[in-house]
Amino acid sequence: MSNASGAVTRDIGVVIVAAGSSSRTAGAELKQFRWVAGKPMLLHSVQRFMERADVAIVVCVLPKSHAGDPPPWLFQCDVDRLLVSVGGRERGESVLNGLGDMPPEVRFVLVHDAARPLVDGETIERVVTKAREGVGAVPALPATDTIKEVDESGAIVRTPDRTKLYHAQTPQGFPREMIEEAYVRAKSDRVQATDDAALCERIGAHVVIVAGSTTGMKVTTDEDFARVDALMKLVR
Predict the structure, then answer these.
(1) Which domain covers residue 126, as residue numbers?
(2) Per residue in 223-235, pLDDT tens?
(3) Using one digit for the tens of pLDDT, what is the confidence trace for 86-121?
(4) How far from the centroid of its chain's Cα atoms is residue 118's Cα?
(5) If residue 131 lies in a helix (H) or strand (E), which one and from where to where?
(6) Nearest-CA neighbor of 216 among 113, 102, 67, 79?
(7) CATH classification at residue 64
(8) Of 32, 88, 153, 186, which has the maximum CB count within 10 A?
(9) Are strands 136-142 and 207-211 parallel, antiparallel or unpaired?
Protein backbone atom coordinates (compact mmCIF):
# COMPACT_ATOMS: atom_id res chain seq x y z
CA MET A 1 0.00 0.00 0.00
CA SER A 2 1.38 3.43 -0.97
CA ASN A 3 0.94 6.72 0.85
CA ALA A 4 0.31 10.13 -0.70
CA SER A 5 3.98 10.55 -1.58
CA GLY A 6 4.06 7.24 -3.44
CA ALA A 7 6.19 5.47 -0.83
CA VAL A 8 5.08 2.04 0.32
CA THR A 9 3.59 1.96 3.81
CA ARG A 10 4.93 -0.90 5.89
CA ASP A 11 1.80 -1.89 7.77
CA ILE A 12 1.81 -5.71 7.57
CA GLY A 13 3.15 -7.97 10.28
CA VAL A 14 3.79 -11.67 9.70
CA VAL A 15 3.81 -14.36 12.37
CA ILE A 16 5.49 -17.57 11.17
CA VAL A 17 4.70 -20.41 13.53
CA ALA A 18 7.80 -22.63 13.68
CA ALA A 19 7.66 -23.91 17.25
CA GLY A 20 6.67 -27.53 16.58
CA SER A 21 8.57 -30.54 17.87
CA SER A 22 8.57 -32.45 14.53
CA SER A 23 7.16 -35.63 16.05
CA ARG A 24 6.10 -37.10 12.69
CA THR A 25 9.46 -36.94 10.95
CA ALA A 26 12.56 -39.03 11.49
CA GLY A 27 15.79 -37.76 13.01
CA ALA A 28 16.64 -35.31 15.77
CA GLU A 29 16.65 -32.17 13.61
CA LEU A 30 13.55 -30.01 13.86
CA LYS A 31 11.34 -30.32 10.79
CA GLN A 32 11.20 -26.56 10.25
CA PHE A 33 15.02 -26.44 10.06
CA ARG A 34 15.45 -29.35 7.63
CA TRP A 35 16.50 -28.60 4.08
CA VAL A 36 13.89 -28.96 1.37
CA ALA A 37 13.87 -27.63 -2.19
CA GLY A 38 17.35 -26.15 -1.79
CA LYS A 39 17.22 -24.40 1.59
CA PRO A 40 16.00 -24.80 5.19
CA MET A 41 12.21 -25.03 5.26
CA LEU A 42 11.67 -22.00 7.49
CA LEU A 43 13.91 -19.83 5.32
CA HIS A 44 11.62 -20.34 2.32
CA SER A 45 8.74 -18.64 4.11
CA VAL A 46 10.75 -15.82 5.69
CA GLN A 47 12.31 -14.80 2.39
CA ARG A 48 8.98 -15.03 0.55
CA PHE A 49 7.27 -12.60 2.91
CA MET A 50 10.23 -10.25 2.93
CA GLU A 51 9.85 -9.88 -0.83
CA ARG A 52 6.91 -7.62 -0.04
CA ALA A 53 7.80 -3.98 0.54
CA ASP A 54 4.72 -3.48 2.73
CA VAL A 55 5.87 -6.02 5.33
CA ALA A 56 7.09 -4.21 8.44
CA ILE A 57 8.16 -7.25 10.46
CA VAL A 58 8.40 -11.02 10.21
CA VAL A 59 8.21 -12.70 13.61
CA CYS A 60 9.54 -16.26 13.66
CA VAL A 61 8.14 -18.13 16.64
CA LEU A 62 10.70 -20.80 17.52
CA PRO A 63 10.84 -23.46 20.23
CA LYS A 64 12.15 -22.16 23.55
CA SER A 65 15.22 -24.35 23.08
CA HIS A 66 16.18 -22.48 19.90
CA ALA A 67 14.77 -18.96 20.29
CA GLY A 68 17.81 -17.73 22.20
CA ASP A 69 20.24 -19.12 19.65
CA PRO A 70 18.53 -19.26 16.23
CA PRO A 71 20.22 -21.05 13.32
CA PRO A 72 22.67 -18.69 11.59
CA TRP A 73 21.09 -19.12 8.15
CA LEU A 74 18.01 -17.29 9.42
CA PHE A 75 20.01 -14.08 9.35
CA GLN A 76 20.40 -14.23 5.57
CA CYS A 77 17.17 -12.21 5.64
CA ASP A 78 16.62 -8.50 6.27
CA VAL A 79 17.52 -8.47 9.96
CA ASP A 80 15.90 -5.07 10.40
CA ARG A 81 12.56 -6.71 9.66
CA LEU A 82 13.22 -9.97 11.52
CA LEU A 83 12.28 -10.84 15.07
CA VAL A 84 12.47 -14.15 16.93
CA SER A 85 9.81 -14.96 19.49
CA VAL A 86 9.49 -17.85 21.93
CA GLY A 87 6.95 -20.55 21.19
CA GLY A 88 4.39 -21.80 23.68
CA ARG A 89 3.10 -25.22 24.65
CA GLU A 90 0.28 -25.02 22.09
CA ARG A 91 0.05 -23.40 18.65
CA GLY A 92 -2.34 -20.75 19.93
CA GLU A 93 0.08 -19.68 22.63
CA SER A 94 2.84 -19.38 20.03
CA VAL A 95 0.69 -17.16 17.80
CA LEU A 96 -0.29 -15.01 20.77
CA ASN A 97 3.39 -14.54 21.64
CA GLY A 98 4.08 -13.47 18.06
CA LEU A 99 1.18 -11.03 18.09
CA GLY A 100 2.57 -9.49 21.25
CA ASP A 101 5.79 -8.62 19.42
CA MET A 102 4.08 -6.65 16.64
CA PRO A 103 5.20 -2.99 16.44
CA PRO A 104 2.56 -0.21 16.58
CA GLU A 105 2.63 0.50 12.83
CA VAL A 106 1.27 -2.95 11.98
CA ARG A 107 -2.41 -2.76 10.95
CA PHE A 108 -2.78 -6.14 9.27
CA VAL A 109 -1.45 -9.51 10.40
CA LEU A 110 -0.65 -12.64 8.41
CA VAL A 111 -0.21 -15.91 10.29
CA HIS A 112 1.69 -18.63 8.44
CA ASP A 113 2.80 -22.16 9.26
CA ALA A 114 6.48 -22.82 8.57
CA ALA A 115 5.42 -26.28 7.40
CA ARG A 116 4.11 -24.68 4.18
CA PRO A 117 7.43 -23.57 2.64
CA LEU A 118 6.31 -23.03 -0.96
CA VAL A 119 3.56 -20.47 -0.50
CA ASP A 120 3.50 -18.27 -3.60
CA GLY A 121 3.35 -14.51 -3.87
CA GLU A 122 0.01 -14.52 -5.69
CA THR A 123 -1.69 -16.32 -2.81
CA ILE A 124 -0.20 -13.89 -0.31
CA GLU A 125 -1.45 -10.97 -2.40
CA ARG A 126 -5.00 -12.35 -2.47
CA VAL A 127 -4.97 -12.72 1.32
CA VAL A 128 -3.57 -9.23 1.87
CA THR A 129 -6.11 -7.65 -0.48
CA LYS A 130 -9.01 -9.09 1.51
CA ALA A 131 -7.49 -8.22 4.87
CA ARG A 132 -7.16 -4.61 3.70
CA GLU A 133 -10.90 -4.67 3.01
CA GLY A 134 -11.49 -5.32 6.71
CA VAL A 135 -12.24 -9.04 6.67
CA GLY A 136 -10.35 -12.19 7.56
CA ALA A 137 -9.00 -14.21 4.63
CA VAL A 138 -8.12 -17.90 4.33
CA PRO A 139 -6.48 -19.38 1.20
CA ALA A 140 -8.08 -22.71 0.45
CA LEU A 141 -8.55 -25.38 -2.19
CA PRO A 142 -11.91 -27.06 -2.83
CA ALA A 143 -12.25 -30.62 -1.57
CA THR A 144 -11.98 -33.08 -4.44
CA ASP A 145 -12.48 -36.28 -2.44
CA THR A 146 -15.67 -37.36 -0.72
CA ILE A 147 -15.40 -36.59 3.00
CA LYS A 148 -16.79 -38.92 5.67
CA GLU A 149 -17.64 -37.97 9.24
CA VAL A 150 -17.29 -40.89 11.67
CA ASP A 151 -17.97 -41.56 15.32
CA GLU A 152 -15.55 -42.88 17.95
CA SER A 153 -15.92 -46.44 16.70
CA GLY A 154 -15.14 -45.52 13.10
CA ALA A 155 -18.72 -45.89 11.90
CA ILE A 156 -19.77 -43.36 9.26
CA VAL A 157 -22.41 -40.96 10.57
CA ARG A 158 -22.52 -38.37 7.80
CA THR A 159 -21.29 -37.61 4.28
CA PRO A 160 -21.04 -33.82 3.96
CA ASP A 161 -21.65 -32.10 0.62
CA ARG A 162 -18.09 -31.71 -0.66
CA THR A 163 -19.06 -28.75 -2.89
CA LYS A 164 -19.15 -26.71 0.31
CA LEU A 165 -15.88 -28.05 1.75
CA TYR A 166 -12.41 -26.56 1.36
CA HIS A 167 -8.91 -27.46 2.51
CA ALA A 168 -7.61 -24.44 4.44
CA GLN A 169 -4.04 -23.25 3.98
CA THR A 170 -1.89 -20.41 5.26
CA PRO A 171 -1.06 -17.55 5.44
CA GLN A 172 -4.34 -16.45 6.93
CA GLY A 173 -4.73 -12.68 7.07
CA PHE A 174 -6.70 -10.35 9.33
CA PRO A 175 -7.05 -6.76 10.43
CA ARG A 176 -4.92 -6.53 13.55
CA GLU A 177 -7.81 -5.70 15.87
CA MET A 178 -9.74 -8.77 14.71
CA ILE A 179 -7.02 -11.36 15.27
CA GLU A 180 -5.90 -9.83 18.57
CA GLU A 181 -9.46 -9.83 19.93
CA ALA A 182 -9.96 -13.42 18.77
CA TYR A 183 -6.87 -14.61 20.60
CA VAL A 184 -7.48 -12.61 23.75
CA ARG A 185 -10.98 -14.05 24.04
CA ALA A 186 -9.79 -17.55 23.22
CA LYS A 187 -7.18 -17.35 25.98
CA SER A 188 -9.74 -16.05 28.44
CA ASP A 189 -12.17 -18.85 27.53
CA ARG A 190 -9.42 -21.50 27.35
CA VAL A 191 -10.29 -22.35 23.77
CA GLN A 192 -7.86 -23.94 21.30
CA ALA A 193 -8.26 -24.17 17.52
CA THR A 194 -6.35 -25.75 14.66
CA ASP A 195 -6.26 -22.49 12.71
CA ASP A 196 -6.58 -18.78 13.34
CA ALA A 197 -9.70 -18.22 11.27
CA ALA A 198 -11.68 -20.57 13.54
CA LEU A 199 -11.04 -18.25 16.48
CA CYS A 200 -12.16 -15.24 14.44
CA GLU A 201 -15.28 -17.10 13.31
CA ARG A 202 -15.97 -17.87 16.97
CA ILE A 203 -16.29 -14.16 17.86
CA GLY A 204 -18.53 -13.48 14.87
CA ALA A 205 -15.91 -11.86 12.64
CA HIS A 206 -16.36 -11.97 8.87
CA VAL A 207 -13.91 -14.42 7.30
CA VAL A 208 -13.83 -15.37 3.61
CA ILE A 209 -12.10 -17.88 1.36
CA VAL A 210 -9.62 -16.84 -1.33
CA ALA A 211 -8.02 -19.12 -3.88
CA GLY A 212 -5.14 -21.14 -2.50
CA SER A 213 -2.39 -22.93 -4.41
CA THR A 214 -1.26 -26.51 -4.92
CA THR A 215 2.25 -25.41 -3.95
CA GLY A 216 0.90 -24.41 -0.54
CA MET A 217 0.94 -28.02 0.62
CA LYS A 218 1.82 -28.79 4.21
CA VAL A 219 5.00 -30.74 4.95
CA THR A 220 4.22 -33.16 7.75
CA THR A 221 5.99 -36.47 7.08
CA ASP A 222 9.26 -37.58 5.52
CA GLU A 223 7.33 -38.49 2.38
CA ASP A 224 6.12 -34.88 2.14
CA PHE A 225 9.72 -33.66 1.96
CA ALA A 226 10.26 -35.89 -1.05
CA ARG A 227 7.06 -34.57 -2.67
CA VAL A 228 8.14 -30.96 -2.26
CA ASP A 229 11.56 -31.69 -3.76
CA ALA A 230 9.89 -33.41 -6.71
CA LEU A 231 7.46 -30.53 -7.16
CA MET A 232 10.27 -28.00 -7.28
CA LYS A 233 12.04 -29.99 -10.01
CA LEU A 234 8.86 -29.87 -12.09
CA VAL A 235 8.25 -26.12 -11.77
CA ARG A 236 11.83 -25.01 -12.30
Answers:
(1) 12-235
(2) 988 888 888 777 6
(3) 999 999 999 999 999 999 999 999 999 999 999 999
(4) 11
(5) helix 121-132
(6) 113
(7) 3.90.550.10
(8) 32
(9) parallel
